């Protein structure tokens, strides 16, 4: 059993179709998780590429030596690419987290001590530095839509539209 798992994970000649189908299934599961649970895609990218990097390093450092195989250039390139994508994903996750914290601070400054709920905020497709924030203040039937620009690491308020719900 253990040998079969090791062969499945590290032998690129065996189980090609099964690996492809498993990766396709994991891709759709990742998209489902990010959509349904509203988890950042970058969080999952970081986890997935950490796993890929660890698997690549185990293959290079343990499996190839155990099987007395020379480490191919493709193995090193795969490890390097996983490391680059992991670094980019971490950077994008931290950037997204920084923007999210700035949005919470901006709304908190605007409403003062009142409770508020940010229903969502998203980047406006036409302008990658513009964000739309939808929030409500506790106890009110009013919805607020705020437009913000992200410039030089700072969130700048453009305008807010209010919608009264009766």
UniProtKB/TrEMBL annotation:
Keyword Transmembrane helix: yes
Top-rank taxon: Bacteria
Transmembrane segments: 20-37, 43-62, 74-94
Keyword Membrane found: yes
Keywords: Membrane, Transmembrane, Transmembrane helix
Name under which the protein is recorded: Uncharacterized protein
